[in-house]
Fold these 4 entries.
Entry 1:
Amino acid sequence: MTAHEIVSEHGCFGGRQRFYKHMSEAIGLPMRFSVYLPPQAEEGKQCPAVFFLAGLTCTEETFMIKAGAQRCAAREGLILIAPDTSPRGANIPGETDDWDFGVGAGFYLDATQAPWSAHYRMESYITGELLPLVAGLFNLDLGRVGLMGHSMGGHGALVLALRHPGMFRSVSALAPIAAATQCPWGRKAFREYLGEDETAWRGYDASELMRAQKAAPFADGILIDQGLNDQFLARQLHPHLFEAACEAVGQPLSLRRHAGYDHGYYFISTFIDDHVRHHAARLT
């Protein structure tokens, strides 16, 4: 495999939808990611970019196929980048046993516990490898990069934005796991990836990270949308805890709650335009 290889390419709203694979040094395995290049990038202009982190069981294709975000990105001149949600092919015993852990469930962290620590290094992959890779490929302005995500990916977006100050200028989330140490999904993953010491888990909990801030890290505001018919809201997501943490440190937050919407991509596609506009306003 070359440094990066285009798997497929498709015309889309005047731009190009591409799917890539490459050999990752951070992961130690082949990885895949997708990129939407708006018409402005085709014309040679330097465009801002937004990373989208998908949720449990998803791949680098899910957001690009289901969300309908390319129409919005073409209008605003934003490059969209979506990585896969975990390493694949590590062949760790048990990594495919559960839908909410292992393959498709990397939780956007660097595992510290064997055997996961050898390959499950999604934080280093995204921030230290994929971002520089796409910046070189598409002449990105690294001062104009945003981060958004859904569910597990919403957790990833909030956490990585807070753990890497200055790397991402804008952040938003849809139905995020907002307090991962307080929900079954997060506790299950953290115990296996990070070990039994729960104090180590706080570094990957968005609410804990926000509460530890000395000042608002995103003065222009964070946007979160949450469906009130979301089957995971009460047990897994806890957006009210992130809301309280933002209030405690003076972080502007627009947490919009929507009656009648569940956790899936019908919900995401309904509000994705608002999220693209949110990022465009801060990046352009």
Entry 2:
Amino acid sequence: MSVATRTVSPDEADTRLDRWFRRHFPALTQGALQKMLRTGQIRVDGQRAEANTRLAAGQAVRVPPMPESPAPVARKAVSDRDAAMLERLVLYRDDSVIALDKPHGLAVQGGPGITRNLDAMLDALRFGSEERPRLVHRLDRDTSGVLLLARTPGAAAKLAAAFRGRDAEKTYWAVVVGNPTPQDGRIDLPLTRQGGPRGERTAPATEGEEGTRAVTDFRTLDAARGHAAWLEMQPLTGRTHQLRVHAAAALKTPILGDGKYGGAAAHLEGLPGQLHLHARAIAVPHPEGGTLEVTAALPPHMSETFGFLGFDRPKTPKPRRLR
């Protein structure tokens, strides 16, 4: 391959230079990329550039000879049944974004013991596009609710930046066992990741232990006979299992169905045993301008619990993009 010049497309604007190269040349290692940058083999509009340089539409990128990319790994075809299921989950779709209502029990990505996951089925959501949708954030397998996908590389970069920079406002609903005291406030409890016989888990940092800061705002929306409460939770940080640990360890009210962090105390007789944590809504800057607001209705097991406990089951507003 000889030296080439590529023009940055409008969709790739604001993408970091190193990420731009990794998308176009997946076989290029970080070390090789850094060497090309140091020696001036890679240039943007004729000038030397750094790995974190943000590209603008129309800029010319000098591309030196690149290593051959490995043959693509063949993906398992998505069954007609799974494809139809995924299409039914779509809450919102435009040229840049797809919002799904992820069901309880569907893993977002593969892992040990996971044979079926959303990421492996995303080809079913192309809707005629040459680009395969991309994940820009995650939900636990047992958490239901709003999950956003990017339909282009540029949209993926902008959405991922919004989640990293806390410009995405995420609202969760949870049913917890017991009533929190106080009924609303902010939890600021550092967390650590620990190993164990049943796999890795998140735990509060102990005194003298350096943990990662985790902050959650919460408020009680309703309570039932002192046995359970309906909480609205807004994570201001994005730690693994943050809401589950904060509910169990900081509020002393484990999320209903969360045996991992609440043990036997996380279950109530006569109520569904699934995890009662739902990503109710997301408000995020839209890649093309304005704000996208998407809300997901309660999953069946939580709707059943709401009815049993006498909580109002509010209507779900339609997704909208505010200009």
Entry 3:
Amino acid sequence: MKYGFLGTFCAVATVLGITATTARADTSISIPTDRSISAATGQENPTSGTAAPTKRAYNNPQSTVNPVLTRLELDTYKLVNKYRQSRNLPPLEIDPAISAQARAHSEKMARDRHMTHDGFHERADSISQTIVYRKAAENVAYNMGYGQPELVAIQGWIESPGHQQNMTGPFDLTGIGVVQNAKGEYYFTQIFIRKAWYVKDAD
């Protein structure tokens, strides 16, 4: 059995050994429309409340799977909202377009057998075509050999300060993609979005 979860902090990855398994983690990333980065927190925050989303050309990976949630994706979504409820936070609303981006990334990780945040700016840019957002963040994880892989992924995120911060952050939309490859490995991607009209800035 193995599991892993990954984040980035100033593009530097750390290797950690956790209870006889291998995990790669440091902290998760979040980006707003203007791409400014706070090295102190690992969070990217807008320098202006009126900044427009950055538009640029890129190859946008499209999921080959229908964006309707699978059972495992739905269970993961429910667990995240249950955790938020335990912290007296409002639930996240699932969005099919965000889930399509999350699943496309999980599909790529599952094919490559490599857990990464590569392409997150492109995923965020694609989301910005239909959702004007103030802030975005992403958690990824993988595991295999567990009867309830979603529980292992969520627990890993809860135990990691950066990932837990994304789970409990002032977001209102989310998308989730979970894909299993031929080796039996499960790859998870969850994208968090705070819409630009979000009134109370909790940062």
Entry 4:
Amino acid sequence: MSSKLPPPQYYRLDDTCLVIDCQHIHQLDHKQKQRLINYVAMQYHARYEVVDAVSADESLTLYCELGTDLSTLERQCTVLWSGFDDGHLVSRHHLIPVRYGAEQGIDLARVAEQCNLTERQVIDAHCASNYDVDFLGFQPGFAYISGLDSRLHLPRLATPRTLVPKGSVAIAGDKTAIYPANSPGGWHIIGHTEVTLFDPLNQPPALFAPGDTLSFAEA
């Protein structure tokens, strides 16, 4: 990635909260912008003046100690941003086995119909893509994962389900995800995995981290 990167925008939620936003940067694609955001986030997770660094979709929020000079923080972030190189990223790759269809992928047939594909084509497309973990949210260990084949892009369900089983592999919009625990949800369920995504006894407790890469394989 070029060192001459367009700068992000900054705004403050209050005297202790700085938001870094790159959604307006049209010269970079989503993957490039998300890598930049996650790189800056990694640099601030260990900084004493930053209580938390929370990645989101092409934005980052830094929650700071009272009295932190946010103007200085902006300048530091700009230096990190402009000096970014893909080699600076440290990430892990995860291979996730999935059982598709039947009772464990109750929406697979409907997804295939809506996408004008066969069920086999949906499975193959989901397994063929290389994915990136953009950010975590919604519930502990729930990762928003980009890289979904454009043929599988569908809006969320009009009426969310009150219960989606733990381990459900699902798609919605331009992303895929795995539910770490039983919960409500409005994504299309196409399969199931036995991989544990969140365990409070592990360190770190979440299996995925922003910037990780991922692929799926039919079990």
